[in-house]
Amino acid sequence: MRVLVVDDDFRVADLHAALVNSLEGYEVVAVATSIAQARELLATRSFDLALVDVYLPDGSGIELVRELPCEAMVLSAAADQPTVRAAMIAGAWTYLVKPFPRSALVDRLTGYVAYRAALDRSEELGQADIDSGLDALRPRPSAPTPTSQSVTRDLVLDAVRGTSEPMSAGEVAAAIGISRATAQRYLATLVSKGRLRMQLRYGSTGRPEQEYSSVPGS
């Protein structure tokens, strides 16, 4: 499956791309940080699936979804009813509210592969083929459901692990869409448990800033 990732935050886009590329049968062909960039890519390349954010610097990702010649998932911090409905009306087949656990995206991508397999069996489909494909798109309930605290903790950990450069609390907050204070709290906890390490970043002026990186083998 050839995938296009569209998100205005390059760190978030890279996190999503890394997750998609880790799954068998998927390849992120391109990443765009604006509607204009996505349109340029769509003019010269073909995609099976697009992962699209709503808040983009040059407009709403929902408008882009309407134009896509491929299927789309919307991944956004927007959780209001009009936005969610507009995304579905535009053609998105699922909607994930940020921040979400990695497992939520993995489940939906796994379902999409099964959906395509069911519908690509032949030119002429039976009702059983259609029902099987649509059923595959429905996320399966998982038990136990992770708490919001554990989801946020894992997102913070994944953000730091997903980059080769140390990150400050502000950079982590911007990458996953939480406040700086919240990011700082989870980072401190992860450091205390030995899952991340903290060092000081010295600039030319002012106080040094704390930055965080992965612990090898953790």
Overview features:
single chain; alpha/beta; Rossmann fold; Arc Repressor Mutant, subunit A; 2 domains; five-stranded parallel beta sheet; 9 helices; globular
In short:
The chain has 218 residues and is of the alpha/beta class. The protein has nine helices and ten strands.
What percentage of amino acids are in beta strands? 15-25%
Helix content, binned percent: 40-55%
Please indicate the count of domains. 2
Count all strands and give the number: 10
Judging by the overall fold, what is the CATH architecture of the largest domain?
3-Layer(aba) Sandwich
Topology:
Layout: E1 2-6, H1 10-21, E2 27-32, H2 35-44, E3 49-52, E4 55-56, E5 59-60, H3 61-67, E6 71-76, H4 81-90, E7 92-97, H5 102-119, H6 127-136, H7 148-161, E8 167-168, H8 169-176, H9 180-192, E9 196-201, E10 209-214
Helix pairs in contact: 3-4, 5-6, 7-8, 7-9, 8-9
